[in-house]
Design goal:
single chain, Rossmann fold, three-stranded parallel sheet, two-stranded parallel ribbon, 17% strand, binds adenosine-5'-diphosphate
Length: 160
Amino acid sequence: MLTPAVYAGSFDPVTNGHMDIIRRARDVFGAVIVLVMPNACKRPLFTAQERVELLRQALQGEENVRVEATEGLLTDYLKKNGLKVLVRGLRGEGDLEHELVNAFYNKQFYASAETVFLPGRPEYAFLSSSAVREAFSYGADVSALVPPGVAEALQRKKRF
Ligand code: ADP
């Protein structure tokens, strides 16, 4: 029986960089749960439900990938669901320090938790949800950076 790895993030919105990590994590661990988390530091563009739906749409047809959401502590989600492997993407040095802190706290709160890092692809090294949101807010065409359903959802946001 496969124990899925968990790839948690705010995914506001999911980008092609996230999609790459999701597929590679699935290929390494056999199965992956993409977990949509709230992010207290960021004002979300999409609601958690919208972020889940955009991920599900982008991942339609992908085997052994499931999308879920939680509002609580990540380690509580792991404990409750009998999971322990966390996958994180590393774009570069900038991510590393912050991700090591996250890994420390997750281990602190749940001793069985293990964090595994996957290096991001160089072509996505500068791609982040926040950069996509910012560029979009000034009218940029971000359709090459996100799955097609996300580009459409962004266009719909623009109309309201
Ligand atoms: P973002 O940093 O884009 O706002 P999240 O907070 O949802 O995204 O990040 C979730 C995880 O995805 C983190 O481990 C982050 O480092 C990783 N990640 C985000 N964008 C990329 C990318 N372009 N390439 C590789 N990993 C990424």
